[in-house]
Design a protein that fits this description.
Blueprint: H1 2-32, H2 39-55, H3 62-83, H4 90-112, E1 125-128, E2 131-134, H5 136-157, H6 159-169, H7 171-176, H8 181-203, H9 214-227, H10 233-253, H11 259-283
Antiparallel strand pairs: 1-2
Helix pairs in contact: 1-5, 1-6, 1-8, 1-9, 1-10, 2-3, 2-4, 2-8, 2-9, 3-4, 3-8, 5-6, 6-8, 9-10, 9-11, 10-11
C-alpha cells in the first residue's frame, strides 16, 4: 500500500507537469488552430534560465518568475515567426514551430552546454499515509490547480479571454467586430510560453533537465492535450494526470524504460478514439 501511494503521488506530480505543457498547446490551438511543437522547448529554456539565475545568486521566487517570463518571451518570438505574417495556414505554422524546436537545441547547447541541470525546490518532506515524499510535489500540484482555475476564469470572465474565444470559434466574425486576430494569436503563444516555462521551472527540482528533455515533455503534453481534443483544458488536466500516474506505476512495478511507450500508446488510443467518433459526428443532422 505504501508503494502504491508513493507511485500515485509522484505520478500526480509528473502528470501536473504534462498537463501544464498540454494546456499551453490547448491555448494556442484554440485561438490559432496551430499545434505548437515548440511548446516543450519553452520549458527547457525556462528551466535552464532558472538554474543560471539561481547559480548567480538571485533568490528563489524571483529567479523562477524571471525564468517563466523568459519562457513567455520565447513563446512570443515563436508566435511572431509562425503566425506573424497574416494568412499563414496552420499547417505551415506547425512545420515552422517544429523547425524552431529543433533550432532551440543548438541555442540551448550553445548557451548552457549539454550537461543536465537541476536546482533545489521546496525543502523538506511531507508524510501522508505512512509515505514520505518531497514537499516540492505539493507546490507542483498547488500551482497546477491555480493555473487551471485562472485559465478557466480568463476565458470565461475577462474581455481578453472572450476575445481569444471569439478568435477560436469564428475568426471571420471576430475580425468584423474589430478583434485583431494576429495580436490575439501572439498573445496565445505568449501564454503558452509562460505555461511551458512554469512546467519547466516546477519539474527541474525533481527531474534532471537536459537540452533534449523537451521531447519527453512535448510527447506527454501532446498526449494530454489530445485527450482533451486540443480544445478543453479540464480534459487536458485529466489526461495529464492519467498519463503521469500510468508512467509512475509502470516505472515502479515494471520497467522505467517503458515510460515513453506508455505516453505513445495513450496518445495512439485517444487519436484512434477521436478518429472513430469523427464519422459519427459528421453524420449527425444539422
Amino acid at each position: 500500500m505504501r508503494e502504491f501511494l508513493q507511485y500515485l503521488i509522484t505520478g500526480v506530480g509528473s502528470g501536473c507537469v504534462f498537463a501544464l505543457v498540454g494546456s499551453g498547446l490547448v491555448v494556442v490551438h484554440r485561438v490559432t488552430r496551430v499545434v505548437n511543437f515548440a511548446q516543450g522547448s519553452f520549458a527547457v529554456i525556462a528551466a535552464m534560465t532558472a538554474s543560471t539565475l539561481l547559480a548567480s545568486g538571485l533568490p528563489h521566487g524571483l529567479a523562477e518568475a524571471s525564468a517563466v517570463a523568459v519562457g513567455a518571451g520565447a513563446g512570443l518570438l515563436v508566435g511572431l515567426v509562425a503566425i506573424g505574417r497574416p494568412g499563414t495556414p496552420p499547417g505551415a505554422s506547425l512545420i515552422i514551430t517544429l523547425g524552431l524546436a529543433v533550432f532551440a537545441y543548438a541555442v540551448e547547447v550553445l548557451i548552457w552546454g549539454d550537461q543536465p541541470r537541476s536546482f533545489a525546490g521546496v525543502p523538506g518532506a511531507v508524510e501522508f499515509g505512512g509515505v514520505r515524499f518531497q514537499a516540492h510535489y505539493l507546490l507542483i500540484i498547488g500551482a497546477t490547480a491555480v493555473v487551471f482555475a485562472g485559465t478557466a476564469a480568463l476565458f470565461a470572465r475577462t474581455d481578453i479571454g472572450r476575445a481569444l474565444s471569439a478568435c477560436a470559434s469564428n475568426p471571420y466574425a471576430a475580425r468584423v467586430v474589430g478583434i485583431d486576430i494576429v495580436r490575439m494569436g501572439l498573445l496565445s503563444f505568449g501564454i503558452g510560453g509562460a505555461l511551458g516555462g512554469l512546467a519547466g521551472v516546477l519539474v527541474t527540482p525533481i527531474q534532471l533537465v537536459t537540452f533534449d528533455y523537451d521531447v519527453t515533455l512535448i510527447v506527454g503534453g501532446f498526449a494530454a492535450a489530445v485527450f482533451g481534443g486540443l480544445m478543453r483544458p479540464l480534459h487536458t488536466l485529466v489526461g495529464g494526470l492519467l498519463l503521469g500516474v500510468a508512467q509512475s506505476f509502470v516505472a515502479g512495478y515494471g520497467n522505467a524504460a517503458y515510460q515513453m511507450e506508455v505516453a505513445l500508446v495513450l496518445l495512439l488510443a485517444v487519436m484512434m478514439r477521436q478518429a472513430a467518433r469523427a464519422p459519427a459526428a459528421e453524420q449527425e443532422p444539422a
